[in-house]
Amino acid sequence: MRSLIKIGSTLLGAVVMLSSCEKDDSTGSGQLSYRVKPANYTASVGGSISGSGLVVGVNSNSSITWTSGSLYINEIDFEAESKNTEIEFELKKPVSVDLFNLSPLLGSVSIPDGTYDEVELKLELKKSDTNMPLTLKGTYTDANGAKIPVEFYFNEDFELEVEAEDLIVNGSNDYLGLINVQLNKFMTNVISADLSNASKTNGVIVISSTSNANLYSKLKANLKAFAECDFED
């Protein structure tokens, strides 16, 4: 069985050994495990929106190539409902994810057998002075080939909700969730003028809530559009 579930962020890959709440006493269960698989590190940055966010060669002119990044999640809540069952899991132990390496298995969730009409995942990011919720670093190559370092810092309280339908769980199978992180989609709706006209801090285009705020708003909006998940048995 293979089902494709579109999700709102790469963040689903941070699911790890969730602990069960007491809303279900079913005995049969399937195991869902998760692994992050990042891809598409280089994205075009065009003169118009239609030319941005496309996959291109590393350090091509008019592109951005991400080279490092991390995600820090404070809490994960998982809910699933079928006609006869409602289950909840939660994890309150913070977890850090490297967004630039194929991750090891991040953990497992045991779910009673059945067809789940609704599946929801909530990921809690918390503003922090010590563990930034999300960072990305890379290089912007402009139309003339000039290279400028870029750093994106997201440091806000933020709740990401992921929803899916018709997840079939059979206890005779183990399931792997490959979280395909497509970093090129972070540049959706960003155009070359946004980066060329951005202010620099010591030669670096810093994108944060207090630096290049318009660019920050665009990248923040893309948090809900740059990942998908394949569940395979």
Molecular structure report:
The chain is mainly β and 233 residues long. The protein has 2 helices and 18 strands. The strands form 4 sheets. Strands 4, 5, 8, 12, 13 and 17 form a 6-stranded mixed beta sheet that branches. A hairpin with a 4-residue loop joins strand 6 and strand 7. 33% of the residues are buried. The N terminus is likely disordered.
How would you summarize what this structure contains?
With 233 residues, the chain is mainly beta. The protein contains two helices and 18 strands.
Which key terms come to mind for this protein?
2 helices; 233 residues; mainly beta; five-stranded mixed beta sheet
**Average residue-wise pLDDT:** 79
Distance between the termini: 6 Å
Q: Which regions have little confidence, pLDDT < 50, spanning 5+ residues?
A: 1-27
| Helix-strand string | EEEEEEEEEEEEEEEEHEHE
Strand content: over 45%
Largest sheet: 6 strands, mixed
Q: Please state the CA-atom Rg, rounded to the nearest Å.
A: 19 Å
Q: How many β-strand runs?
A: 18
Structural class of the secondary elements?
A: mainly beta
- Count up the helices: 2
Q: Helix coverage percent of residues?
A: under 10%
Shape: elongated
